[in-house]
Design goal:
globular, mainly beta, six-stranded mixed β-sheet, 1 helix
C-alpha cells in the first residue's frame, strides 16, 4: 500500500490569514478536502484536483514547475498545480491510485520530514520549504524524495 502525505506549515505572514484545514474522507475512495482562506496558496500534484467548493470564479489555478532538473533524477514529480482564491474555498483532491493511504502532517518548525519518492500529494503554508533531496543512507528505491521544512 502506498502512503501519501499532505503537509501544512503554520502561516506567519499575517494574523488575518487562517491556516488551511485538511480533512480526509475514506469512503468509498480516499479524498482530501482542503479549506483555504482568501489569498492562501495550495499546491497539489498535477491531475489530482477534482473539485472546488465556493466561488469558483474567484479561483486562480496555474501550473508550477519546481526544480525539474533535480527532481527528474530522483523520479520525483515536479509539476504541481497552484490554487488560490480571493475568497475562501474548499478544494477536493483525489490521489491517482485508489489503493492509497492518506495522512495529514502538521509541521511546526521543530521537525523536518522527508516525503519519499512520489508520496507528496498537496501542501500549503507560507513558511513551508519543499526541496528535492537524496538520502544515501536509505535503500536506493527509497532514497529520493522531498525535504520538508517549516
Amino acid at each position: 500500500m502506498r502512503h501519501t502525505h499532505m503537509l501544512r506549515a503554520p502561516t506567519t505572514v499575517s494574523k488575518c490569514i487562517r491556516d488551511a484545514k485538511f480533512e480526509i474522507s475514506d469512503s468509498p475512495l480516499p479524498l482530501l478536502s482542503v479549506t483555504l482562506s482568501a489569498s492562501q496558496n495550495l499546491y497539489t500534484r498535477r491531475g489530482t484536483l477534482v473539485g472546488i467548493g465556493g466561488k469558483a470564479e474567484n479561483v486562480v489555478s496555474t501550473l508550477s514547475i519546481l526544480e525539474p532538473f533535480r527532481r527528474v533524477i530522483g523520479g520525483i514529480p515536479f509539476v504541481y498545480q497552484r490554487v488560490s482564491s480571493t475568497s475562501p474555498v474548499t478544494a477536493l483532491i483525489a490521489p491517482k491510485l485508489v489503493a492509497t493511504s492518506l495522512a495529514v502532517v502538521h509541521l511546526d518548525g521543530s521537525t523536518d520530514w522527508m516525503a519519499i519518492g512520489r508520496s507528496l500529494l498537496a501542501w500549503t503554508g507560507q513558511t513551508l520549504s519543499v526541496t528535492p533531496t537524496i538520502n544515501t543512507k536509505l535503500v536506493r528505491s527509497r532514497a529520493s524524495g522531498s525535504r520538508l521544512q517549516g
